[in-house]
Specification:
With 725 residues, the protein is an alpha+beta fold. The protein folds into four domains: 41 residues; 153 residues, Jelly Rolls (Sandwich), CATH 2.60.120.260; 304 residues, Glycosidases (TIM Barrel); 98 residues, Immunoglobulin-like. Helix content is 18%, strand content 32%. The protein is built from twelve helices and 38 strands. The strands form nine sheets. It has an eight-stranded parallel sheet, covered by helices on one side. Strands 3-2-4-9-6-7 form a six-stranded antiparallel sheet, with no helix packed on it. A five-stranded mixed sheet has the order 32-38-37-34-35. β18 and β19 form a beta hairpin. The longest helix is centred in the last third of the chain and has 21 residues. It is globular and about 95 Å long. The N and C termini lie far apart (81 Å).
Length: 725
């Protein structure tokens, strides 16, 4: 196909020939009109580089600090990377002194040059806590929010083109925030470290300026609804109408899929684009497109995937692209990791973040809750590219601000996130009983053209198709006075078919007193955390003291944690009562010195992303797409007893599962004492239950019940340790 430039050139030559006669003038007029509309559809004729330009300000900035926003720094004695946090400053600020985390303003300074343009904006993607912006000594504006972007019109404050400009950004401390903004409170954090923790850029362009784009995919007839707002030149006498051009391309190949134009009248543009032979996005096939929009003075490129996601009332699964889909995953508590000694610059290292999410996928996880806080924008882009679903949780735990203030924060949050196919659930808060988050949800949910479901923490769900979260920390009972029975702690907490508790059903019951009929996602469970060195946390230490049956070595604790976490995972998956099972947690802190931490992750070396080997051995197969659960929980059995052992098999895939299950009883030397096989067939997205019977040995000792099948990745198994007496 000829380029648009070639086409216009050919038509211009035709006009010259036809102008020599009267009839030809009519042809020429038609050709001139065609050129006009073609140029309108595909830009103003300006080279693309003269439209939107983005200047990254990431890099090393100068840093100083004072006691307040009213006190300007005398000199900038430090340097600090952007994005990052102030504890990365050089020379070091001495962060163990918490005085530096309260009642201080940290002043970032850099210099830049830029060309003149009709529109010049500064965008700070995220900075905490509270930012004020100065250009060339003049106050431009401020952003009181810590978890959403700040956008500032800086054009009138700039020096002449190619002249140096001074940019200073003041960042406050958390204790200085007003009570009308969310402050990110977390009961289990100790240090709230300020900083510009996401990218900073300058956007230079012209009118009509594309201020925001929202893309809502339709996967039944592959197409997208596109909605954008235009900023028009208020000084112009031209009518506020025209055409906006679009081009859709495949992201990786750059292959053009479709192009066209849409009319606009006023500031809002809303139109639909069909995607021929559209390829759907999923964690298994994260196929991405780009949409480029063009006006006479601006262009804007947005990535998107053809993906829909939601739930149906009363159904124990999600709907990904209209098909049932089960969530298996973890939690990322990045703001806790921010205070981890091993953190350094890892959250801003693309290679490390890519490998982190790849390590999650290697555990058979397809999703994560970004818990009590948001990572940098780059994390969402990586999740889009690798195929990883995100439950995006606003950093509220027990201190929700009034709804009319909160709704403004939610709007800013949603507008930054709604084109990411990875983001499938808006999570309003964590474990908070309040009416304010529900009110705010009702004010903003219609803004999302994709109508994603919401999670309202421990408060009532706001729609029949929203989820309710559950945090069934069954081992919490051993934190205080309870001790295991003679049958063992697993029998105490897992016998029978439990309802996932510790959520809205208990904390904010329905007026009728019945369980909500909403889909359930378990996005926290365990209560058996170990630090990376294998030591217990403050919450798990009394639990290990009671369930350990004596003093445990570090290696014994690690194995016990992995085995019990695997058993819990199998249990919640095996009974098919939940749309998602997300363990806590995949990234956090490891605080072994005072003040000790309450939770942790499963890494031995977080910089190298090295997991505890027991965690991989036992927990990875528990999350396999086709999972096994030995539904037998007694850990001490009489010599010679005959027992029946039920086994549940769940199939999360769209393929029929047909394999041979192998059942073994193994002694302490690794010798197989009994071995049986069972041919099993499980329908797509289905489950089945089979039964094995066996007779216990007449010799006292420790044994293992093992059921497994062989997959391409190796053995997928369920295991129970038992003691015969």
């Amino acid at each position: 196909m000829a380029s648009i430039h070639t086409l216009i050139t050919h038509m211009t030559q035709t006009i010259k020939k036809e102008l020599s006669n009267l009839a030809g003038m009519q042809i020429a007029l038609i050709a001139l009109m065609s050129i006009f509309w073609i140029s309108q559809a595909f830009g103003s004729g300006k080279p693309k580089e003269e439209l939107r330009q983005v200047l990254s300000l990431n890099g090393n900035w100068e840093l100083a600090y004072t006691e307040s926003f009213d006190q300007a720094p005398n000199r900038f004695a430090y340097t600090v990377p952007v994005p990052g946090l102030i504890d990365l400053a050089n020379p070091a600020l001495g962060m163990p002194n918490n005085d530096l985390l309260n009642d201080k303003v940290y002043w970032y300074r850099c210099h830049f040059k830029t060309e003149s343009a009709a529109v010049v904006y500064l965008k700070i993607y995220k900075a905490m806590y509270h930012t004020k912006v100065y250009i060339n000594g003049q106050l431009v504006g401020e952003n009181p929010y810590s978890f959403t972007s700040g956008i500032f019109d800086i054009g009138k404050y700039l020096n002449k083109p190619r002249k140096d400009n001074e940019l200073i950004i003041g960042v406050g401390c958390r204790n200085m925030l007003p009570d009308t903004v969310t402050n990110g409170h977390d009961f289990e954090k100790k240090r709230y470290i300020p900083g510009i923790y996401d990218k900073v850029e300058i956007i230079r362009s012209g009118y009509p300026f594309i201020t925001n784009v929202q893309i809502a995919p339709n996967t039944e007839k592959p197409s997208i609804r596109v909605q954008t707002n235009l900023m028009l030149n208020s000084k112009s006498s031209q009518p506020h109408k025209g055409k906006i051009a679009y081009v859709v391309k495949e992201l990786k190949s750059g292959k053009e899929v479709t192009r066209g134009q849409a009319d606009y009248f006023g500031k809002l543009v809303d139109f639909q684009v069909d995607i021929p032979n559209g390829r759907l996005w999923s964690p298994e096939d994260p196929f991405l497109y780009t949409l480029e929009l063009m006006t006479d003075g601006d262009s804007h490129v947005t990535r998107f995937g053809l993906r829909t996601f939601g739930f149906e009332e009363g159904k124990p699964y999600g709907l990904l692209n209209g098909k049932p889909y089960y969530l298996r995953g973890t939690n990322v508590t990045l703001y806790r990791f921010f205070e981890d000694d091993a953190r350094q610059s890892l959250p801003w290292n693309d290679e490390w973040v890519v490998n982190l999410i790849k390590s999650y996928k290697s555990m058979h996880w397809n999703s994560a809750r970004f818990c009590i806080g948001f990572p940098p924008e780059r994390w969402y882009e990586i999740a889009d590219s690798l195929g990883f679903l995100v439950q995006d949780e606003y950093p509220i735990w027990a201190n929700a601000i009034p709804a009319h203030h909160l709704a403004n924060e939610y709007k800013a949050w949603m507008s930054e996130r709604w084109n990411h196919p990875s983001v499938v659930i808006w999570d309003a808060q964590n474990e908070t009983i309040t009416a304010e988050t529900g009110k705010a949800i009702q004010q903003v949910r219609s803004l999302d053209l994709s109508n994603r479901p919401w999670d309202n923490g421990w408060s009532p769900p706001q729609s029949e198709t929203d989820i309710v979260e559950a945090h069934p920390y069954l081992f919490h009972k051993y934190q205080r006075l309870a001790t295991p029975s003679s049958d063992g702690p697993l029998r105490d907490v897992l016998e029978g078919k439990r309802f996932p508790d510790n959520g809205p059903n208990e904390k904010s019951p329905s007026p009728e007193g019945t369980y909500y009929n909403n889909p359930i996602i378990i996005n926290e469970y365990g209560w058996l955390w170990l630090n990376r060195d294998g030591s217990p946390t403050t919450l798990s230490e009394p639990v290990y003291n009671r369930i350990g049956m004596g003093e445990l070595t570090t290696d014994q604790r690690r194995e016990l944690y992995a085995r019990y976490l695997a058993a819990l995972t199998e249990y919640w998956r095996g009974h098919r009562r939940c749309a998602g099972v997300l363990h806590f947690c995949g990234l956090g802190y490891s605080r072994t010195a005072d003040p000790r931490g309450q939770t942790s992750d499963h890494f031995i070396d977080v910089a190298q992303l090295e997991y505890d080997p027991y965690f991989i051995k036992y927990v990875k197969p528990a999350f396999a797409p086709v999972g096994i659960m030995i539904d037998y929980w007694t850990e001490r059995i009489w010599r010679g007893a005959s027992i029946a052992v039920p086994v549940n098999v769940v199939n999360d895939t769209y393929d029929t599962f047909e394999k041979e299950l192998v059942f073994e009883l193994i002694d302490e030397t690794g010798t197989s004492l009994q071995k049986k096989t069972y041919s099993v067939k499980v329908d797509p997205l289905g489950s089945t239950r089979c039964m094995f019977s066996l007779k216990m040995p007449k010799t006292n000792g420790k044994y293992e019940l093992l059921v497994y099948y062989h997959s391409d990745e190796g053995k997928v198994f369920s295991s129970r340790k038992i003691e015969v007496k």
